[in-house]
Design a protein that fits this description.
single chain; alpha+beta; Alpha-Beta Plaits
Protein backbone atom coordinates (compact mmCIF):
# COMPACT_ATOMS: atom_id res chain seq x y z
CA UNK A 1 0.00 0.00 0.00
CA UNK A 2 1.24 3.48 -0.90
CA UNK A 3 0.04 6.86 0.27
CA UNK A 4 0.78 10.04 -1.63
CA UNK A 5 0.28 13.69 -0.90
CA UNK A 6 0.70 16.89 -2.85
CA UNK A 7 0.42 20.46 -1.64
CA UNK A 8 -0.15 23.17 -4.25
CA UNK A 9 0.80 26.73 -3.32
CA UNK A 10 -1.18 29.05 -5.60
CA UNK A 11 -1.31 32.77 -6.19
CA UNK A 12 -4.81 34.09 -6.74
CA UNK A 13 -5.73 37.06 -8.96
CA UNK A 14 -5.62 40.59 -7.56
CA UNK A 15 -9.40 40.81 -7.30
CA UNK A 16 -9.42 38.12 -4.56
CA UNK A 17 -9.33 40.76 -1.84
CA UNK A 18 -11.79 39.08 0.47
CA UNK A 19 -12.16 35.57 1.83
CA UNK A 20 -15.44 35.26 -0.06
CA UNK A 21 -13.69 36.10 -3.35
CA UNK A 22 -10.91 33.66 -2.45
CA UNK A 23 -13.46 30.87 -1.97
CA UNK A 24 -14.79 31.67 -5.42
CA UNK A 25 -11.44 30.66 -6.90
CA UNK A 26 -10.57 27.77 -4.57
CA UNK A 27 -13.90 25.87 -4.55
CA UNK A 28 -13.98 25.14 -8.31
CA UNK A 29 -10.40 23.85 -8.17
CA UNK A 30 -11.21 21.60 -5.21
CA UNK A 31 -14.30 20.30 -7.02
CA UNK A 32 -12.33 19.61 -10.20
CA UNK A 33 -9.64 17.71 -8.28
CA UNK A 34 -12.26 15.42 -6.72
CA UNK A 35 -12.88 13.79 -10.10
CA UNK A 36 -9.53 12.01 -9.60
CA UNK A 37 -11.04 10.32 -6.51
CA UNK A 38 -8.59 11.94 -4.10
CA UNK A 39 -9.11 13.60 -0.75
CA UNK A 40 -8.69 17.34 -1.27
CA UNK A 41 -9.00 20.46 0.88
CA UNK A 42 -7.69 23.97 1.33
CA UNK A 43 -4.97 23.33 3.91
CA UNK A 44 -2.90 26.49 4.25
CA UNK A 45 -2.79 30.27 3.88
CA UNK A 46 -6.35 30.30 5.17
CA UNK A 47 -6.26 33.94 6.28
CA UNK A 48 -4.37 35.29 3.26
CA UNK A 49 -6.60 36.68 0.54
CA UNK A 50 -4.21 36.40 -2.41
CA UNK A 51 -2.76 32.95 -1.68
CA UNK A 52 -4.08 29.45 -1.12
CA UNK A 53 -2.60 26.07 -0.36
CA UNK A 54 -4.57 23.11 -1.64
CA UNK A 55 -3.72 19.65 -0.36
CA UNK A 56 -4.40 16.33 -2.08
CA UNK A 57 -4.03 12.81 -0.66
CA UNK A 58 -4.49 9.42 -2.29
CA UNK A 59 -3.91 5.73 -1.57
CA UNK A 60 -3.01 3.07 -4.13
CA UNK A 61 -1.55 -0.40 -4.38
CA UNK A 62 1.03 0.63 -7.00
CA UNK A 63 3.40 3.60 -6.63
CA UNK A 64 3.36 4.25 -10.40
CA UNK A 65 -0.43 4.60 -10.37
CA UNK A 66 -0.20 6.91 -7.37
CA UNK A 67 2.42 9.07 -9.12
CA UNK A 68 0.20 9.23 -12.20
CA UNK A 69 -2.78 10.41 -10.13
CA UNK A 70 -0.69 13.12 -8.45
CA UNK A 71 0.69 14.14 -11.88
CA UNK A 72 -2.86 14.52 -13.17
CA UNK A 73 -3.79 16.66 -10.17
CA UNK A 74 -0.75 18.85 -10.71
CA UNK A 75 -1.52 19.30 -14.41
CA UNK A 76 -5.08 20.30 -13.58
CA UNK A 77 -3.99 22.96 -11.07
CA UNK A 78 -1.17 24.23 -13.31
CA UNK A 79 -3.56 24.48 -16.25
CA UNK A 80 -6.01 26.80 -14.50
CA UNK A 81 -5.63 30.16 -16.29
CA UNK A 82 -7.03 32.24 -13.42
CA UNK A 83 -4.30 31.27 -10.91
CA UNK A 84 -0.53 30.90 -10.83
CA UNK A 85 0.97 27.71 -9.40
CA UNK A 86 3.94 28.83 -7.30
CA UNK A 87 5.16 25.55 -5.79
CA UNK A 88 4.29 21.89 -5.42
CA UNK A 89 5.40 19.63 -2.58
CA UNK A 90 4.87 15.92 -3.19
CA UNK A 91 5.60 12.86 -1.14
CA UNK A 92 4.89 9.14 -1.47
CA UNK A 93 5.07 6.74 1.48
CA UNK A 94 4.91 2.96 1.50
CA UNK A 95 3.35 0.96 4.31
CA UNK A 96 6.89 0.03 5.33
CA UNK A 97 7.94 3.64 6.03
Amino acid sequence: MYTGTAAFDVLLPGDARSLKAKRGYVRPIVAALRRFEVAVAEVGALDLHGRAEIGVAAVAADPRHLAAVLDSCERLVAGRPEIELLAVRRRIWSDED
